[in-house]
Design a protein that fits this description.
single chain, alpha/beta, Carbamate kinase, 8-stranded mixed beta sheet, two-stranded antiparallel ribbon, binds adenosine-5'-diphosphate, binds N-acetyl-L-glutamyl 5-phosphate, acetylglutamate kinase activity, ATP-binding
Length: 259
């Protein structure tokens, strides 16, 4: 069976990803696994919107996406950030292949709530045969989270949710969220293992807030499929333990330890 690993690169950390990170992904492929990257780019979209003086608004962690915002989000995600990651892979000796979720109807979606959120989508299908062809060609697909509707309209999708959908439709073994913190923290301490129930407690008591909420929710959603474990980890070089393994929070179906 193909061992597929979906790696979500957060926009918060994309500029910090170094050669070691990309070499790690290429090494994963050399070891016989099939990595797929899904990336975000929230901070880069914000800075472009600011330059263009377009209003920025988030509702429950999702960007309100007017047609003007979509144009900028698509340009930044599928143009700038996507190619930055492809370049990182290529410099590390990998066959990075950048593709937007709209190309080949890779990510198909429906609007979440047109009236309040505008052109924001939730994925209801993934073109798995196209992704399998790309994997079988030896490429490392790099997906930007712009999806399309049956009518061919483009929608902006939260990248954590997009990564979780790709992992579920592709029946991935692992899903890793790479972000700008070492994992889920409580009082400054890294929580190494969390169950779905514990994740909900941490949201309810405010320990998990903001951009960490869609990540832990996407992690819990993914555990309903074949995936046994989802990891939230830091992408910076400093986010590694002394033995080189990446620090992180594993979210599992059932955790044994209490918080
Ligand atoms: N309990 C928590 N532990 C760690 N980070 C948290 C927690 N709650 C909220 N956060 C915030 O979530 C951020 C990561 O989410 P986000 O900025 O959306 O990253 P990304 O762009 O990688 O998706 C962290 O930088 C931190 O500010
Ligand atoms: C609908 C929605 O919110 N889309 C996100 C897509 C990018 C993203 O999710 O980037 P991060 O992973 O860096 O947060 C946005 O426009 O910011």
């Amino acid at each position: 069976m193909m061992e597929i690993v979906v790696i979500k690169c957060g926009g918060s950390t994309v500029d910090e990803l170094n050669e070691e990170f990309f070499k790690g992904i290429v090494a994963m492929q050399t070891a016989g696994k099939y990595p797929i990257i899904v990336h975000g780019g929230g901070p880069a979209i914000n800075s472009m919107l600011e330059k263009l003086e377009v209003e920025i608004q988030f509702i429950d962690g999702l960007r309100k996406t007017t047609p003007a915002v979509l144009e900028v989000a698509e340009m930044v995600l599928s143009g700038k950030v996507n190619k930055q990651i492809v370049q990182g892979l290529q410099r590390a000796g990998g066959k990075g292949l950048g593709i937007s979720g709209c190309d080949g109807s890779l990510l198909q979606a429906v609007p979440v709530d047109l009236a309040s959120l505008g052109l924001v989508g939730q994925i209801n299908n993934v073109n798995v045969s196209l992704l399998h062809s790309l994997l079988n060609e030896g490429t490392i697909p790099v997906l930007s989270p712009i999806a399309c509707t049956e009518e061919g309209d483009h929608l902006n999708v939260n990248a954590d949710a997009a990564a979780s959908s790709v992992a579920n439709y592709m029946k991935a073994q692992e899903l890793v969220f790479v972000t700008d913190v070492d994992g889920v923290l409580k009082d400054g301490q890294l929580l190494e293992v969390l169950s779905a129930a514990q994740v909900q407690e941490l949201i309810d008591d405010g320990t998990v807030y903001g951009g960490m909420i869609p990540k832990v929710k996407a992690a819990v959603d993914s555990l309903q499929g074949e995936i046994e474990k989802v990891v939230i980890a830091g992408g910076k070089a400093g986010s590694r333990k002394e033995d080189g393994t990446i620090k992180g929070t594993a979210i599992v179906k059932e955790a044994t330890a209490t918080l």
